[in-house]
């Protein structure tokens, strides 16, 4: 996720204003994820269709819901950590993640300038350490529910930044507005609460479904106190 005030003209790999080698890495990451996910997804679909029964479909729906909730929580946890801990000089994570989240608070709409590749490539890449081992080592026949859980989790993690981007768009297409009115995707009105002082709640940015309960229980404030005590 990058925040920039202006966009350059089109280039061979699209519209971007950072080194081409990074753009190539992003494109390769997205393409590799897509290929791997199709392979993994087809294995799951074949296994579910072979076992087709009410209890199997029900089990897949249950683990799918759990994965959906997990993705929302993970988005909030990463957001919380990047907003509150470390600096842009933190090794490995500082420049790539912490700086981006901090700049986002200075320019919330800036991320809407990025195209799909720029906004989402990091998340797609971060899913690969889960997706690739799942293809290589996970026996879908024996662990179909785990496979389904991981597949749904990776889908929602991968699109989190895109959903976050929608929540900041000045003009939201009507189709996206309808999606935002469902529990599946973060609503602009809900996310605006995070960008309102004191900026210490509503961190979840995938669906936001966990935001109300985590706010009412003061979960993030408690976690921040624990983190600060552990650093003393």
From TrEMBL:
Record field: transmembrane: 24-45, 52-71, 143-160
One matching Pfam family: Lipid_desat
Organism: freshwater metagenome
Family: Belongs to the fatty acid desaturase CarF family.
Any one annotated GO CC term: membrane
Gene Ontology MF terms: oxidoreductase activity
Protein's UniProt keywords contain Metal-binding: no
Lipid desaturase domain mapped to chain residues: 69-225
Taxon lineage: unclassified sequences, metagenomes, ecological metagenomes
Protein name: Unannotated protein
Compartments, record wording: Membrane
Keyword match RNA-binding: no
UniProt keyword annotations, A-Z: Membrane, Transmembrane, Transmembrane helix
UniProt topology in membrane: Multi-pass membrane protein
Main location: membrane
């Amino acid at each position: 996720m990058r925040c920039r005030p202006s966009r350059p003209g089109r280039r061979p790999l699209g519209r971007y204003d950072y080194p081409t080698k990074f753009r190539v890495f992003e494109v390769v990451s997205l393409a590799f994820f897509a290929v791997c996910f199709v392979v993994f997804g087809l294995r799951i679909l074949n296994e579910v269709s072979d076992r087709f029964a009410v209890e199997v479909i029900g089990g897949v729906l249950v683990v799918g819901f759990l994965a959906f909730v997990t993705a929302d929580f993970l988005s909030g946890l990463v957001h919380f950590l990047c907003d509150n801990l470390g600096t842009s000089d933190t090794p490995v994570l500082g420049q790539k993640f912490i700086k981006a989240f901090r700049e986002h608070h200075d320019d919330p709409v800036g991320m809407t300038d990025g195209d799909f590749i720029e906004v989402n490539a990091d998340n797609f890449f971060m899913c690969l350490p889960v997706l690739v081992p799942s293809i290589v080592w996970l026996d879908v026949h024996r662990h179909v529910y785990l496979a389904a859980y991981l597949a749904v989790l990776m889908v929602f993690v991968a699109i989190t930044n895109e959903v976050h981007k929608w929540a900041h768009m000045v003009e939201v297409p009507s189709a996206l507005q309808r999606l935002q009115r469902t529990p599946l995707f973060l609503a602009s009105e809900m996310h605006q609460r995070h960008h309102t002082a004191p900026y210490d709640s509503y961190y979840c940015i995938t669906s936001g479904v966990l935001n109300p309960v985590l706010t009412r229980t003061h979960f993030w404030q408690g976690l921040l106190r624990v983190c600060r005590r552990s650093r003393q």
